[in-house]
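Lab notebook: predicted structure, single chain.

Context: the supervisor wants predicted structures on file for every construct in the current expression panel, including those that have not yet been purified. This is the next one on the list. No modifications to the sequence; it matches the entry in the shared construct table.
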Amino acid sequence: MNFVRNRSKRTVIASAAVLLMVTGVHSQANGQSKPAFEALDPQFGALIDTKQQFETISIDFVPTKTMQVSFGKFEHFTEGPLWSPSGYLLFSDIYGDRIYQWKHGGHADTFRTDAGYPNGLTFDQQGRLLICNQKLRRVDRVEKDGHLTVLVDNWQGKKLNAPNDIIVRKDGTIYFTDPFWKFPPGSVQELTFQAIWRIDPKGKVSIAAQDFGLPNGIAMSPDEKILYLGDTARRKLYSFDLRPDGTLTNRRLFADIISNEKGAVDGMKVDGQGNVFTTGPGGVWIFNPQGKHIGTIRPPAIPANLAWGGPGYRTLFLAMPSGIYSLKMKAGGFITYPSRAQNAARQQKAAR
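Prediction complete. Output recorded below exactly as produced.
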């Protein structure tokens, strides 16, 4: 589990066919091409400049063996994009068992090896990287010196399912989803349920909510009063009231994701105005805070996850199975960890 800065010999670059797709119509369903941006409400235009084009990020993937999972064979599968306040993007390669780093104008190369078939990533309030480690079915924290601290790996002696996505509240409370989808291959479910878990600032672990088909993407409103959850199996988004003590109440249906297009409810983020962005059939579905579907972004491939990044957090990074795309936005994203400016203010305060 070492940090690495050397590039591999193989660089994966978008094909000419994909580049042509970026400038035209993108996803296809039932043999019909659809536009890259589908506005269903005037609010959509305030979020996205539809003249913008998708850009590809060149990745120095390290060759690895193909892995057979429940929905296909893959050599690489990008997930968990996360923008660092220091000005670079991190993302997971689940089947490559690595975390990659990308800086603007360069190639993405290896950041961390033996990362535990990593999925969701985030930073805590101290800027430490948190990793959903699917291989060992636990949540890891990378300390400042690089060594790992295991935050949780079992419940009452039984292994977790496969930690998937993760967020951190400003008070340090951690929430993560834990679906069981027979991964890693050969895994046996020990728990009898799938849940949203909570780790309080003192490290106490508890069940925040359960009774899901496949709990996946997780996000929080900018005022930290609402928590959102995407259920892949049920094709639904749920919302909960988030109490000051960190508990969740008043579970309710936020939105149905109904479509015959390819794609699944997976990663989720919120912008600064509280609009919810979730991956889904055909691309990224956008809902206003009241749960109205206001439009869809249709990138060149179906994304599994997304993240805000770049200056002002006005770039949307999309993780596809074998690559990363970016799209400049009008809207600015909401992040739950300290920004670069906030970190600088903290350092100045500590130096006084």
